[in-house]
């Protein structure tokens, strides 16, 4: 908790999103124990409960947070503009990512949340050129690495992605690390080789590998195991250490806390937060809304391949504007513990207008037309009938 408070304070000082004072009254008493409904896993109630809320010192509120973000002068490290991914199947097209717009600034932790299958991992893979042959990508994803040339990740050659981007400018903690790890090398060898490939001297690399293992909460003795000898949680931590080894300015962390128990979840989240406080950027993909709330500056909510709401963390949790975001928050055990009714649409058969309309109690005829695409600003709500911002959820 202390770390979180500190981070909030740092956040304010750095002019990023401010955690609005999620006063006790805005978070309903914890509901029945157990996982959240609707495919999203909520952490324990205490992870995002009132104790986690910002204190009076930074109770500047959502609007202030938005203003700060709006005047943030730092250039974007990543500027995703209209990114669209389609998968061609034999007799259908999967609309996996549609007209996505987001920015990630140096020092920013952006969490991308949403139900299973909404396109989060495809977004990460598109940024790294890791999509299979049946995918087509359009739009832009401009990466401006410090001291380097701008690269459009959406239109870049495989050669350039391999040389300059993957594991260098952009790291990836993959969603299923157990299958991504090379099976014939121990963790120690994998880490040392990665460090060596990124400029560590031969004699420094072993100690650096042990330090990295300790950073991610992995017992250095476990580095001598082969990947198949690791538990899911250990493989997860090793994958995180491998992604961090080159110290990439942008880290894509796809469910990096899967298989970890709560203390290690918090340890990993705080590690990511500290990277951002030191100037790196992290795009955190997670089902865990409590995790997003704990460490993110900005949250982007994806639904059926699109970002439906993107706002500073405190503002979004205190007063969600998109009915889907409000539904996700209502599903949390510590709030109403009421699942979003219905199911997400098939990505091969999306409605012409708002994809959430069939599940939305605010929908009217106009929702058969698409809501306006997002602006490039820090606040974005794709809805014809947003909830009034500034009114607590
Ligand atoms: N190679 C592929 N061919 C066809 N469809 C695909 C392919 N890869 C992914 N998809 C589809 O794209 C959609 C988005 O998948 P994605 O893995 O990004 O979901 P996600 O939001 O990461 O879900 P989860 O939270 O379960 O990891 C899904 O409907 C998935 O079935
Ligand atoms: Ni995924």
UniProtKB/TrEMBL annotation:
Residues 47-64 have a biased composition (Low complexity). Its EC number is 7.2.2.11. The keyword Magnesium does not apply. It is found in: Cell membrane. It catalyses: Ni(2+)(out) + ATP + H2O = Ni(2+)(in) + ADP + phosphate + H(+). GO terms for molecular function: ABC-type nickel transporter activity; ATP binding; ATP hydrolysis activity. Belongs to the ABC transporter superfamily. GO terms for biological process: peptide transport. It holds the Pfam family ABC_tran. This is Nickel import system ATP-binding protein NikD. Residues 78-329 form the ABC transporter domain.
């Amino acid at each position: 908790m202390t770390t979180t408070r500190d981070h909030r304070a740092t956040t304010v000082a750095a002019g990023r999103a401010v955690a609005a004072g999620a006063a006790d009254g805005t978070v309903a008493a914890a509901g029945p124990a157990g996982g959240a409904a609707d495919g999203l896993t909520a952490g324990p109630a205490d992870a995002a409960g009132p104790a986690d809320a910002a204190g009076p010192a930074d109770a500047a509120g959502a609007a202030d947070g938005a203003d700060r973000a709006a005047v943030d002068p730092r250039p974007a490290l990543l500027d995703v503009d209209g990114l669209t991914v389609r998968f061609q199947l034999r007799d259908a097209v999967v609309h996996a990512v549609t007209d996505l717009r987001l920015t990630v600034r140096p020092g920013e932790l952006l969490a991308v949340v949403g139900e299973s299958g909404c396109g989060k991992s495809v977004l990460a893979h598109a940024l790294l050129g890791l999509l299979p042959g049946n995918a087509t990508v359009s739009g832009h994803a401009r990466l401006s690495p410090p001291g380097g040339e701008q690269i459009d990740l959406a239109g870049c050659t495989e050669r350039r992605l391999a040389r300059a981007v993957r594991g260098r400018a952009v790291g990836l903690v993959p969603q299923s690390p157990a299958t991504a790890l090379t099976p014939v090398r121990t963790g120690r060898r994998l880490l040392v080789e990665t460090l060596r490939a990124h400029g560590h001297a031969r004699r420094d690399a072993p100690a650096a590998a042990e330090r990295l293992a300790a950073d991610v909460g992995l017992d250095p003795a476990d580095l001598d195991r082969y990947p198949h000898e690791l538990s899911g949680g250990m493989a997860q931590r090793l994958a995180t250490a491998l992604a961090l080894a080159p110290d990439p300015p942008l880290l894509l962390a796809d469910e990096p806390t899967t298989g970890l128990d709560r203390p290690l979840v918090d340890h990993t989240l705080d590690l990511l937060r500290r990277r951002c406080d030191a100037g790196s950027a992290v795009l955190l993909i997670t089902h865990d809304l409590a995790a997003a709330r704990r460490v993110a500056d900005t949250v982007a909510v994806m639904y059926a391949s699109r970002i439906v709401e993107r706002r500073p963390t405190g503002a979004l949790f205190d007063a969600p504007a998109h009915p889907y975001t409000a539904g996700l928050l209502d599903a949390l055990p510590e709030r109403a513990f009421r699942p979003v009714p219905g199911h997400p649409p098939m990505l091969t058969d999306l409605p012409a207008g708002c994809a959430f309309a069939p599940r939305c109690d605010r929908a009217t005829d106009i929702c058969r037309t698409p809501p306006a695409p997002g602006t490039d600003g820090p606040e974005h709500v794709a809805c014809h009938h947003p909830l009034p911002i500034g009114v607590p959820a």
